[in-house]
Amino acid sequence: MHSAAxxxxxxxxxFTLACALGVVLCKNAVNGAMCLLxxxxxxxxxxxxxxxxxxxxxxILVYAGAVVALFLFIIMLLGAxxxxxxxxxxxxxxxxxxxxxxLITGLDLIALRGRLDAGPPVLxxxxxxxxxxxxxxxxxxxxxxxxVMGFLLLVAMLGVIVLSRRPTxxxxxx
Amino acid sequence: MSPSLxxxxxxxxxxxxxxxxxxxxxxxxxVIFMCLELMLVASTLALVAFSxxxxxxxxxxxVFFILTVAAAEVxxxxxxxxxxxxxxxxxxxxxxxxxxx
Lengths: 174, 101
Description:
The structure holds 2 protein chains of 2 kinds.
Chain A: H1 4-25, H2 29-49, H3 53-78, H4 91-112, H5 131-139, H6 143-164, H7 169-173
Helix pairs in contact in A: 1-2, 2-3
Chain B: H1 5-25, H2 29-54, H3 58-88
Helix pairs in contact in B: 1-2, 2-3
């Protein structure tokens, strides 16, 4: 008994996982960035399925529009497409195996034993679906975090300016 | 009948694991950074799913903050990578071993 929603979820999640694997496996960093773009589109699709339309829109706007574009720009600028995907030696291999074993155990536990106690989803009237409700939350309950975020963005902007500025002649000679 | 909360959380954990794998096995700094972003997105998926299934709004709002932090992080991180490339002419982590010597 599979409803349309479940089939859609299965398709989108398989697509998202495949694209996420593409980010890891693609040898060329440009292809990896493209896979990341598709993966984000898949996650946005899942957000739509969860009736979080506003967040899906924001995800596409911020991640696909700004972050992935910035990544592609830097990859092109530095000419850093290539590089060997993996090469393990000694301690690296051991750390990788331990981490992979832990992750697989965790996933296995979630898949087999974990039964999260939750009723059916509350799909109507969620905050993520309406800009008005969302803004009301942001500017009443979460006003302080919003202001902290504004400050964080300011600090990040200043940091980027300082980092990307060329050293002046006096600093270069010192 | 919509998919259960378990399905969303499992998918989120799998996406996080894939991102973590990428951070471990890749040697290109830019690809490692992309995998970090993947892990952040996986956590947002879990937040939205929990928020929807429990009928609360905190998860939705925190996704907004995660997006903001991710944007700031990408800006600063890429600036650092560009500065690093200017100084060392490489972005492969194997060759960035000045502190090891």
